[in-house]
Specification:
heterodimer; A: 912 residues; alpha/beta; Ubiquitin-like (UB roll); Alpha-Beta Plaits; six-stranded mixed sheet; 27 helices; 36 strands; B: 163 residues; alpha+beta; Arc Repressor Mutant, subunit A; four-stranded mixed sheet
């Protein structure tokens, strides 16, 4: 710690940290543009100038850029000195010369860092009377608007997009006053983390395009702390509502999980909440096969009737723990299934077994970024758990950070660190079915079928420690990958092994565990990250079920009643089995938010609330329980599924599930030994701050409350009362001292933009005040097991059977593979058409080439062909969730034939 | 058509050869960006979008990244220019020595404003901040030749030397 004097007041600061960060951590006000806690300092904008004095005698001092100056003990600086203030006022006046006077019509207005800094710097009147330079804007795809006239050339966009996210198609063009930040030509911004530009740009150059279609000012939005439902990473989000529609999703800082950034699936994948296919009424299938609308009470009664004499319950990895628990209690453990496909369920059990052995650390995303060697075994993380890929991208920088440290370059000195360590990168080893986007960063790659990748994994563990059994013989390239991986990983101090469930191969997970355990035994701090597919895959896995999905469906086919919770089972099981379950079951009750193939086959449909209209808990890949809060009240009969189930239980005469309140369900969840921590994921509904206040969902400037529904009813509606959470449905309450899990929006006086988040952090870029949200539930001490013997390689035949048929393997697309986000317009627009990947030899045999079509009669589906040289004979890879496919590939091999009729659909892009 | 063939289709084999020769001196291919742009411009007068893409492919970088470099430099021409490029210095020494009259004479004689090309494609007129020859102000440069102490009456004769 160093002591620094700022305008005569002493503060503690970290020695060597940059002065801007230290000043902000001390909660002082200093304007800045180009600096960002995740992007470091480049000293480009000159806005954070302060005066530094040599000693007590020095009254003149000299101007320095705070972001470029390391903190030193005894340092004396002034933010308030007239010279510093004048300089900062001049800088902002120059920046504003070309900035348009369009705040009233600009979408950034009211949450604009430039506005805030302009006011802070005291530049209140324009002297410049000349022409402003103007630009043509570009079409950048469905996610972002482009308005270059507003640019103040801080370079944050390209530094984020290129240096942090690895994109190459956003560039800085030209020089001097004609700098242009855009693409070489108009077109979709390709990087799947492009949406963060909305929050990274300090003004309105890049704004949220879907949001702008039904725009609302930040101060008019009602928001709540939430958790992304897009994958198993569990990024923290702030979704916002107005007029009963979910308008946008912003990042909610969590220093251990997502930090400052989301992926585009998470940011733009919420559109289904507003979809026309939403179910808002209770429907019962009449004799003519059409749904009749019935009242909520009748619905409860009918559901009660269905479960009274026992029913099979199918839960869901995309429903909250609370709803899953309610169903589990309602039907009983022996009749409850997690809703994961049978294959995935087995893998989830395996992952929990691995974690509960406690052999290696389960890393947070922040810890992924700190890894100094990463091995990815089989999982295509960019497409299955996208935010992990962005974290892995940062891990590769550790080598250059270490070099910088040795050379005495402060780590926040972005340009210095990058140019000093230009050619160096920490090792990244990618073993994958197909080449992945991360390969460009990889020091070693290897492609193969899942069984070969698993064999490679077992071999790596064996090389590290011969007590771990090796698998099958490997081919030359795979063997050299194994040799390199073992050498590289054993040199690392914080190695990390990543795998997951997406290839539906247990060998990969077992091999990944063996490697991590073998590394750990060598004395290093090894991490093991195993991803699952959906927001609550891990949670529902921990809750556990007595039967797997296929068994549950067979029981239904044999005549059992069936209750399906937020699950389109047609995506997860064999279509024939699902069909027989639907036809054989005496009654099929489905609780879901959106019409799908399962609700189509139901005899009773109950409208379930989405994450935005309910409060509940998701458990992410690291076993972190995180609470999401209701953003706005559901319309129509829509209610959280647990409430339907609880009421139905009461109707059926059950006296153990009279839950009125979500906290009661949370308590019931927490009675499960694995899930005790759930109760602490966020404060319960009784929480109030010291002054007895709730946390408001709406900012204090929230307008139109008395008038916004006047078109429907002229009388002012009664403010909705929140019976369940510590949040209020209005601006009443107090913001600022709430626990991080209750941060419904970020704002601080003078800081209207999201940059105000530092006011809620322990130190700038650190953990949230009071600790990052969420409770980790899978951390375990090493168990008394023989780690080396626990998982042994299986001998599995690999290769074609020679009958010309294909074994299908799954691959995923960040846009389109996940069920709900895939039904959001901007995501669907970015999703690829259904495709199949064939090896060069198989493509030649089928006489098809890249871009031509093949048909699979068994799946009744047509795919565009992609050719991948390395893919083995007898294999074909299809993208899940696209073109009518669900989440599973058939286990039997299928036939493929060229489709001469195939016409590649032209991409329709809505411009403007 | 192979990738190499596609490159040759846009760039001449001499250009590719000259660029490869530059790359040979440098730690990585991208570092030859400036040299490559200059080689192509020297050969064709300017760098078209097609040339730019081809150079980017040759250097293993994105066209956007190369264009970011190209557009930073005002003497890498990303639009077609005339057979001769006239650069008129408007910096302080030349201004003191009356360059404005000379510039006006050139503009009137060619019938174009700074930044424009004559209709016959013979001249492009560009302003420049300093040509480093203040002792001979006012100065203009046409192609690679410097003309110092230019007076209004010298203008027709100077222009005549560039067909």
């Amino acid at each position: 710690m160093a002591k620094i004097s700022v305008d005569g007041v002493e503060f503690d600061a970290k020695e060597g940290e940059n002065l801007l960060q230290a000043v902000l951590s001390a909660q002082l006000e200093l304007p800045y543009f180009c600096w960002h806690p995740s992007l470091g300092s480049v000293g480009a904008c000159r806005q954070c100038a302060v005066i530094q004095y040599a000693d007590e005698e020095d009254t003149q001092g000299r101007l320095i850029m705070a972001c470029m100056t390391p903190v030193a003990d005894g340092m004396r600086v002034s933010l308030e000195a007239a010279h510093a203030r004048d300089f900062r006022a001049s800088v902002i006046e120059w920046l504003m010369e070309n900035h348009p006077h369009d705040c009233p019509v600009c979408e950034e207005g009211g949450e604009c860092h430039l506005q805030d800094m302009t006011v802070m710097s005291g530049h209140t009147a324009r002297r410049y009377r000349g022409n402003k330079r103007t630009f043509e804007n570009q079409y950048l795809g469905p996610f972002l608007n482009h308005e270059m006239n507003r640019c103040i050339t801080c370079y944050r966009c390209v530094r984020y997009y290129q240096d942090y996210a690895g994109g190459t198609d956003l560039q800085a063009f030209g020089s001097r006053a004609r700098m242009y930040f855009g693409r070489e030509e108009a077109g979709v911004l390709e990087n799947p983390f492009s949406g963060n530009l909305v929050e990274v740009c300090p003004t309105g150059v890049f704004t949220d395009k879907p949001f702008s279609k039904t725009y609302t000012r930040k101060w008019d939005l009602q928001s709540a702390p939430s958790v992304c439902a897009g994958c198993a990473v569990g990024c923290n989000t702030i979704p916002s509502e107005r007029y009963g529609r979910l308008k946008r999703v912003h990042n909610r800082y969590n220093g251990s999980v997502n930090g400052y950034f989301l992926c585009d699936r998470g940011r733009y994948g919420f559109g289904y909440v507003n979809d026309d296919a939403r179910i808002h009424k209770v429907g019962v299938r009449a004799a003519d096969g059409v749904f009749d609308v019935i009242s909520a009470e009748e619905g409860e009664e009918k559901l009660g009737d269905i479960v009274r004499d026992g029913a099979i319950g199918i839960g869901s990895p995309r429903a909250s723990l609370e709803s899953n628990l309610a169903l589990k209690v309602l039907v009983g453990e022996e009749n409850f299934c997690t809703g994961l496909s049978s294959a995935e369920d087995a893998l989830m059990r395996l992952i929990l077994d691995v974690y509960e052995c406690g052999g290696a650390r389960i890393p947070t995303l922040a810890q992924v970024e700190e890894a100094d060697a990463v091995l990815i075994l089989g999982e295509d993380v960019l497409n299955t758990a996208p935010r992990v890929a962005l974290a892995v991208r940062q891990s590769v920088r550790n080598e250059s950070l270490e070099m910088a440290e040795q050379a005495g370059i402060p780590l926040w000195q972005e340009a210095g660190v990058r140019s000093h360590g230009r050619e160096s990168a920490s090792p990244l080893l990618v073993a994958s079915l197909l080449p992945t986007e991360l390969d460009e960063l990889a020091t070693h790659t290897c492609n193969g079928a899942p069984e070969s990748l698993a064999a490679a994994g077992f071999a790596i563990a064996h090389r590290l420690n011969s007590a771990y059994a090796a698998g099958e013989e490997l081919d030359g390239p795979t063997q050299s990958f194994v040799d390199d991986a073992a050498a590289v990983l054993s040199r690392a101090k914080r190695p990390l092994v990543i795998s997951g469930t997406s290839l539906r191969n247990d060998g990969l997970i077992k091999a990944a565990a063996n490697i991590a355990w073998a590394l750990k035994a060598q004395g290093c701090d090894a991490g093991l990250l195993l991803t699952a597919a959906e927001a609550n895959s891990c949670g529902v896995g921990m809750l556990g079920g007595g039967v797997d999905l296929d068994t549950a469906l067979r029981a239904a086919a044999a005549g059992q009643a069936l209750v399906v919770l937020e699950n389109d089972v047609t995506r997860r099981a064999d279509p024939d089995l699902v069909a027989s379950a639907f036809s054989g079951s005496t009654a099929v009750a489905v609780l879901d938010s959106l019409e799908n193939a399962t609700t189509e086959s139901a005899s009773l449909v109950l409208p379930a609330a989405t994450f935005a209209e309910s409060t509940g808990t998701f458990v992410n890949y690291e076993g972190r329980a995180q609470r999401f809060f209701e953003v706005f009240a559901a319309t129509g009969e829509t209610a959280p599924a647990w409430r339907w189930l609880s009421k139905a239980g009461a109707r059926a005469g059950r006296n153990d599930m009279h839950w009125q309140h979500v906290d009661q369900v949370v308590e019931a969840v927490a009675s499960h030994p694995r899930l005790v921590g759930v109760a602490d994921a966020a404060p319960n509904g009784g929480h109030r701050n010291a002054a007895g206040n709730r946390v408001p969902r709406a900012p204090h400037r929230y307008s139109g409350r008395t008038a916004m529904n006047a078109g429907v009813n002229i009388h002012e509606p009664k403010t909705q009362v929140d019976e369940e959470t510590p949040l209020s449905y209005s601006m009443e309450g107090a913001m600022g001292d709430q626990p991080a899990a209750l941060t419904s929006y970020v704002w601080s006086p003078g800081w209207n933009s999201n940059q105000s988040v530092f006011k809620f952090q322990q130190e700038v870029g650190g953990a949230m005040a009071g600790g990052d949200p969420g409770v980790r539930m899978l951390d375990a001490e090493p168990a008394q097991v023989d780690f080396a013997q626990r998982y042994r390689p299986l001998q599995t035949p690999i290769g074609a059977e020679g009958d010309g048929r294909f074994k299908l393997l799954p691959t995923h697309s960040i846009f389109g593979s996940e069920e709900l986000s895939g039904r959001s317009q901007p995501i669907a627009e970015r999703g690829p058409q259904a495709f199949i990947v064939l090896g060069a030899a198989e493509a030649a045999r089928l006489q098809v080439a890249e871009g031509m079509g093949v048909r699979c009669p068994e799946l009744d589906a047509t795919f565009a062909v992609r050719v991948e040289e390395s893919l083995a004979e007898g294999l074909a890879v299809v993208a899940m969730g696209l073109g009518g496919l669900g989440d599973e590939v058939p286990s039997e091999r299928v036939t493929l034939e060229p489709d001469p009729e195939f016409v590649p659909p032209t991409t329709l892009i809505a411009r403007g | 058509m192979s990738e190499a063939d596609q490159l040759i289709d846009v760039l001449t084999s001499e250009e590719v050869e000259a660029i490869e020769a530059e790359i040979a001196h440098l730690p990585d291919r991208e570092s030859a960006a400036m040299e490559a742009l200059q080689i192509v411009q020297a050969n064709r007068g300017w760098v078209s979008d097609a040339s730019l893409s081809a150079i980017a492919r040759l250097l293993g970088m994105s066209a956007a990244a190369l264009d970011s470099i190209a557009t930073f430099y005002n003497l890498i021409f990303r639009q077609p220019v005339g057979r001769h490029v006239i650069m008129t210095c408007d910096s302080v020494s030349c201004f003191v020595m009356g360059c404005e009259k000379v510039h006006k004479a050139i503009e009137e004689s060619l019938g174009v404003s700074p930044g424009e090309t004559t209709e016959d494609g013979r001249y492009t007129l560009l302003p420049i901040v300093c040509l480093g020859a203040c002792d001979r102000a006012p100065v203009i440069m046409i192609d690679d030749e410097l003309h110092g102490d230019v007076a209004v009456e010298d203008v027709p004769a100077i222009l005549e030397r560039y067909p």
